[in-house]
Amino acid sequence: MKPEMVSPISMSQPSNQPAIPAPESIRRATILIAVEDAVVREDVIRLLEAEYRVTVCEGADAVMSQMASMRCDLLVMDERMQTLQTVRATFGAAQLPIVAVVRAAAASESAALITAGANSVLHHPVEGELLHAHIRQQMSIKQHIDEQQTKIEHMKEIFEKKDRLMHMAAH
Questions:
Q1: Cα 42 vs. chain centroid, distance in angstroms?
Q2: Cβ-Cβ contacts under 8 Å for 141 (sequence gap 6 or more)
Q3: pLDDT greater than 90 at residue 133
Q4: Angle ∠(54,56,60) on CA atoms, nearest 5
Q5: φ, ψ of residue 152 in degrees (nearest 5)
Q6: What is the model's pLDDT at position 158?
Q7: Of 93, 78, 92, 80, which is closest to residue 33 (Cα–Cα)?
Q8: 33 within 8 A of 41, measured Cβ to Cβ
Q9: Phi/psi at 73 (5° precision)
Q10: Is the dihedral of CA 44, 45, 46, 48 positive or negative?
């Protein structure tokens, strides 16, 4: 029987650079954590709970249930490919960014996670600032896409009104 390898996530910051806080528009976003490895899960929670609302769940069914009952801004998960594929089949990359935190893996494994739908893959142990940077990046992209989608919907409404006015003017 192989002993379980346990290595905590490093929370150290480069000594010459202060931690960069998340912008106010991203702070207090809801992050769903679906990580089986207890050590990794607890460290990720500790790293994120000061800036984000954190909810923990296990398995694809629990993730889908949480997504149905609450607004979730980002999912942090491990290498469970089936859960990733299930979530991604329901929620597009723009709807729900996914950051995978996995044990050190081969490049092909990381590529497989990206192909399956992860937006970003970090290898464990991961530095706290790196995890925050990936989350800020994905949340910023999501926010930009949401803003563009709102503009598109607004433009559709304007064109529909224009078409109704043109129709009324023609009759």
A1: 17
A2: 97, 119
A3: yes
A4: 130
A5: -60, -45
A6: 96
A7: 78
A8: yes
A9: -95, -25
A10: positive
- Amino acid (1-letter code) at residue 13: Q
Tokens of 58: 């296990």
User: Which segment of 5-14, 33-42, 69-78, 82-91 scores lowest on mean pLDDT?
Assistant: 5-14
Q: How far does Cα 33 stand from its chain's mean position? A: 9
| Range with the poorest average pLDDT among 16-20, 103-107, 141-145, 156-160 | 16-20
Helix (H, G, I), strand (E, B) or coil at 124: strand
Helix/strand/coil for 80: coil
CA 163 vs. chain centroid, Å, equals 39
3-state secondary structure of 50: coil
Alpha helices (H) in the chain, listed in sequence order: 38-48, 59-69, 81-90, 107-116, 128-170
Rounded mean pLDDT, 36-55 = 90
Of residues 77, 30, 28, the one with CA closest to residue 57: 77
Task: Enumerate the β-bridge partners of residue 31.
Answer: 54, 74
CA 96 to chain centre: 6
